[in-house]
Amino acid sequence: MQAEPTLGLDDRRGLRTEEWYRTATRWTQLTLTESDPLHFDPQVWVDIMRENRSNAACLSAGGYMAFYPSQVPFHYRSKYLGDSDPFGALVEGARSLDMHVMARVDSHAIHADALRAHPEWAALDEDGEPYEHWAFPGIWVTCPFGPYNREFITDVARELVRDYDIDAVFANRWQGHGISYSEHARRTFRDDTGLHLPTGPYDADDPAWRAYPGWRRQQLSDLVAFWDTAIRDVRPHARFIPNLGSFAAHELERDLIDKHYPLFFIDRQGRDGIDAPWSAGRNAKRSRGVFRDRPVGLISSVGPENATHRWKDSVTTGAEMKTWIVDGFAQGAFPWFTKFNGTISDNRWIEPVAEAFALHATVEPVLSRLRITADVALLDPTSTGPSHLKQDGERFSHEDGFYHALLEARVPFEFISDKALTAEELARFKVLVLANAERLSEAQCGLIADFVRAGGSLVAAHQTSLLTERGEPRSNFGLSDVLGVDLQEPVRGPVRNNYAELTGEHPVHRGFEGAKRIIGGTQLVGVSAHEDADVPFRFIPDYPDLPMEELYVREPARDPAVVTRQHPGGGRVAYLAFNIGSLFWEALQQDHGRLIGNTVDWALGTEPRVRVDGVGLFDIAVYEGTSEIAVALVNLTNPMTMRGPIRETMPVGPLTVSVTLPPHARPTAATLLVAGQDQPVTVQDGQATSTVPSLELLEVAHLTWDGGTP
């Protein structure tokens, strides 16, 4: 047990203050295993944290298993704990390095003795039987809504903040696993909604299924507030910060988050299967699209992460590890790595983590004072996509395609959450992209229409706005008057051998020289264009793909495939009448990616504020402040670019970075933060251009100027 610390210099270091979390920007997480007290050495971990320049630590404490001498009844201790206190030793070591410290508790399972004494702690199935753990027989899954979280975990949290010099308690797997039919959950749901908990497969027409997500959201939001209040009563500066995991930030109640959730952690520890490496940066964008005022961290594992294959105590390649961490923090999510098992059997992760964290420490002094900005926003389809209950691979396939196309086109962009779609949020951007926002409410359609009338531009695809927010079909697009199209035929497909013919002359034809047509879609929406709209691509009517002798066009191109329109207020609108996003992600045909990039570029209507020229694939983030801009470039050029398991990163360069300056601005310096060198700047027609001679994994080009208007 540790005595209460003496304050003093702590305020200046950001330690033990109300806003301690603002200087907790590089995290080491160690998740201990039951046998660790036998043979692991806490000093090894103190040395690792010193080497990788971590300024914060998340350390295993308790919940499912205690690694300190807990006095809470039925708090199972590691059977090897004896008289030792591994958690306390790690806390002391981290504090010796002036680090912030958070205690990790896991609340998702209990042991047999706890179940016998407190059957009300367990989650129950529809038949009223306790859920036995799916991966480790002999333990049982807990109910997130009842006294286990409200009483037991609260007692554990209070004990930790009372007896140890820590800043927070971090809860893992606290949200439950599926629906718990415990008596407490049944009773509370019935009292709150007048309904019985939903059973069986999801049914959108069942009132109980419709009520459950909102009820769960409120219950878990109230729990966050309860926990946070409970530990702050013991240690005023401390916070209770549950890991969001699969439970996204937008699913919590906004007013409770504002009061009780000072920062977020995204638990996306690595790629799942063939996730592209830019998925790390997307995680940061998605969180920022909901709560722009909250710091966010990306939890990354030193091992491979895959829903199918589980090697939790393993090590992935250094290149993959570094890319995941760096792409995350380049897009604004401070780095956090996690290691399972305090005994190190493979130390190949230590150097890559240290290198990635050193890059963050190098660029943080500049980037931390700036804000990430973009002219283009992609709507996060959490509830506006095809179905909020589909698997991620289905739900986000349209977004995946647009995301990668914009990355290839080198268009810096941000997310807007459909949960945070307001006039103020839209006003931050010049172009809004709807990859396939099927489910839009009348209010959301109205906001988007107002955005376009005020001069904003819009790019929309496929079935955008054809359904209400509840998934009910509309007879026409909710955004018909904005898009300049009317529905003639619902989505048709799968269609084979479809093509779209170039018609007339239009900027979206750029790069298609020599082609009279390009590959079309596999899911087509039949539309007619308004008189004031242009149709730069039309579908060629279907014709057979076999026998080969029958493979020829019978009829001229007819139905609109791409429709563009310029509004009186200056806004530009483009609609693509097929599944271009999901199809590009599936087939990666260059013409589809080029068409997306061309359409967004046309919608922007002006020279982009930032342009990067040179060979390679990069993730770009633009940071701005008063009289300065920083362009972060993450090099994704590698032999496994589209699969995630990176073997090596291929250095590229030279690259040129061009920035549109404010009127009358005079550049004063261009510095490459990672290389640590100044670069010459040339100015022509309001564009400041500098060179990045070479790019390994990360570079940040930082430009400052005098005069002008930001």
TrEMBL record:
It holds the Pfam family GHL6. It comes from the Bacteria. This is Family 10 glycosylhydrolase.
